[in-house]
Amino acid sequence: MRRNAQKILGLFLFTVVLIFASACTSDPVDLPAGVEADGKTLKISLEENPTTGFSWDYTVSDETLLEVVDDEYFPSNTETAVVGSGGIHVFEFQGLKEGETTLTFNYFKSWEGTEKTEDTRVYKIIVDQYGNIEDVQ
Predict the structure, then answer these.
(1) What sign does the CA torsion over 26, 32, 39, 126 have?
(2) Which of 1, 107, 109, 137 is the 20 to 30 A CA-CA neighbour of 116?
């Protein structure tokens, strides 16, 4: 009888540990399309076609929380040189300190200004106390 009680107690403790461990593990954050977050790095990839005069520009509501570390355009991978084809613009940011900021991208022709923005993407970025990108909405 004592042996059965020990088995039941062991099974009970094992179940409690499993429940606790599963409660502590968070599900992966669902990120918007074109967004990758890995620790301190946040990459946002946006389709762009600079041959039309349009390009992406961004603003950060609180620049003390997030800084750009890379900003690069990659033309489409075409076997033949296609005049006027677009590509992907990749912006890479790094978290600096804890807080919440808004990252806004506007797609417009530079000579027309943001008043004639064709597309806007807004992301709410949460940075933890260690400068890691905690969430992107």
Answers:
(1) negative
(2) 137
Range 108-117, long-range pairs (CB < 8 A, 24+ positions)? 108/54, 108/55, 108/57, 109/52, 109/53, 109/54, 109/55, 110/53, 110/55, 111/53, 114/57
Q: What is the pLDDT of residue 3?
A: 56
- The CATH number of the domain holding residue 103 is 2.60.40.2020
Backbone angles phi, psi at 124, to 5 degrees: -95, 125
4 occurs within a structural domain: no
User: What is the rounded CA–CA span in Å between residue 125 and residue 65?
Assistant: 9
d(C-alpha 88, C-alpha 4), whole Å: 64
| Domain range enclosing 62 | 29-136
Tell me the HSE value of 103 on the side-chain side, using a 13 A CA sphere. Answer: 26
27 has pLDDT over 60: no
Q: What does the pLDDT read at residue 18?
A: 40
What's the number of domains the chain is made of?
Answer: 1
**For residue 108, which phi and psi values (nearest 5 degrees)?**
-155, 170
Compute the average pLDDT of residues 69-95: 84
